[in-house]
TrEMBL record:
Pfam families: AtuA
Native source species: Jannaschia helgolandensis
Residues annotated as domain Acyclic terpene utilisation N-terminal: 96-186, 237-399
InterPro entries per the UniProt record, alphabetical: AtuA_N (IPR010839)
Protein name: Acyclic terpene utilisation N-terminal domain-containing protein
Length: 448
């Protein structure tokens, strides 16, 4: 039997980020068996899943997706996207399907399109809750929580993606998938090494992020019976053992073990060999396990209003922690006095000091100024705005101590209150056991 091999071209880390055009052409010249690209993730928070929309510009998405449709047409291979429309919800999948129809119509082309939907009905999921296991740190969830979710998706693995490819479609649009599934599916179908397929997919999920010059985007993954080779397509870009091995640290709690539907990848015995501008990897192992898929769900947590004030007084900058604590205490007292026992959450984020990592921040330097971002979340817009307006004069004039003169700070825009609209939260960090990998997934094939 001949040695199986599969050549997968990854244009970028996600549709909407762009790529080096010459690098894409270089990749097409190597005759890929598949062009595959990720469409999104949870990186930008729960609002996109909650609303079922993409974070990327429609015009940008259409331009890039049209270019990839043309590239796949010229290469004579299928084109696939996972987690379409950032969140992978059905409405986002349909959004990209509409764009695909437009692109094909404008180009005067036809195509067979496979569409994989990954949505879960809250009521049905509640009936299957005995098959659900919480992961570490998962919130408490009950049927009422599920009913509150505007969108719930299950992350598809290789098996669901393989089913879509087996339709013979020229374009495959997937709802929420694991980032690796769309890259590992075809190599596994073609008999390539299981561990290599999953490992190479993890390395290549973000395109040239596993290489130097990551903004060039385009890489090639060549899978075979023993391992895989990753090669950047841009002339200036180089893959090194360090850049390739380091990608197992990316969005992964364990750099050695990667959990996926149906098992886990173990790279403890992997070897990385530089071959010119490429890296050859062998030794990764796949270990099968009972089949589970991860669940993601989002619901409205409340209505948001935001204010921003700029603090430049050196003393206030130096003692900003005490100022924020004092302001919060006084704000809560004022809200209670004037509004009674209302439900709300008020948070002050110190933009320029620990706003990202909070108490985990290792840095010690103090900036010249700090922006205080006050965010209010309440059950309804009127309450959120009323609380924000109560906080307004404190942000502008609150002193560090009662004895000192009243300070004045700066609002960078007027009015300072900005309506944020519905604020969403993730509510699922669980896995669902499936008897059949296709249970609950829906595959449709359309001819355009």
């Amino acid at each position: 039997m001949p040695n199986p091999s599969t050549r997968v071209l990854v244009p970028a880390g996600a549709l909407g980020l762009g790529w080096d055009a010459e690098a894409l052409e270089a990749g097409l010249a190597r005759k890929p068996d598949l062009i595959a690209i990720d469409g999104g993730s949870t990186d930008s928070g729960p609002a996109y899943l909650g609303r079922g929309v993409s974070k990327y510009s429609r015009a940008q998405t259409k331009a890039e997706w049209g270019a990839l449709i043309d590239a796949a047409y010229r290469a004579g291979c299928p084109l696939m996207i996972g987690t379409a429309g950032t969140c992978g919800a059905g409405s986002a999948v349909d959004w990209l399907l509409d764009i695909t129809r437009e692109v094909l119509a404008e180009a005067g082309r036809s195509a067979k399109i496979a569409v994989l939907y990954c949505d879960r009905d809250p009521a049905m999921l509640a009936r299957e809750w005995a098959k659900v296991t919480p992961l570490s740190g998962a919130p408490d969830v009950d049927p009422a929580t599920l009913a509150d979710c505007s969108n719930i998706v299950a992350l598809a693995g290789v098996e669901q993606v393989q089913a879509a490819l087996e339709t013979g479609a020229e374009i495959v649009i997937c709802g929420r998938t694991t980032d690796t599934a769309i890259l590992a599916a075809l190599p596994i179908s073609n008999g390539c090494h299981l561990g290599a397929a999953w490992h190479g997919a993890k390395v290549g999920e973000c395109g040239a992020l596993c290489c130097t010059h990551p903004d060039t985007g385009v890489i090639e993954l060549l899978f075979d019976a023993n391992g895989f080779t990753v090669t950047p397509m841009a002339e200036a870009s180089v893959a090194t053992p360090r850049t390739v091995a380091a990608h197992l640290l990316y969005e992964n709690s364990d750099p050695i073990v990667l959990h996926e539907p149906g098992g886990h990848l173990d790279v403890s015995a992997a070897t990385y060999e530089a071959q010119g501008k490429s890296v050859r990897v062998e030794g990764s192992e796949w270990h099968a396990a009972p089949y589970t898929v991860k669940l993601e769900g989002a619901r409205v947590a409340g209505q948001g209003v935001m204010s921003l004030v700029l603090i430049r007084d050196p003393r206030y900058v130096a003692e900003i922690d005490d100022w924020c604590a004092s302001l919060l205490a006084r704000a809560r007292s004022k809200v209670s006095e004037r509004m009674g026992d209302v439900e709300y959450d008020l948070e002050l984020r110190r933009i320029g000091k620990d706003a990202t990592l909070g108490a985990s921040e290792p840095g010690v330097a103090l900036p010249n100024e700090i922006g205080i971002l006050a965010q209010v979340i309440a059950p309804d817009p009127a309450t959120a705005r009323e609380v924000a307006k109560t906080v307004n004069p404190l942000l502008l004039h609150h002193p560090l101590t009662p004895e000192e003169p009243m300070p004045t700070f700066a609002f960078p825009y007027s009015p300072p209150e900005m309506d944020l609209g519905p604020q969403y939260e993730f509510v699922l960090h669980h896995v669902l056991a499936l008897d059949d990998p296709m249970d609950g997934f829906r595959l449709e094939v359309v001819d355009v």
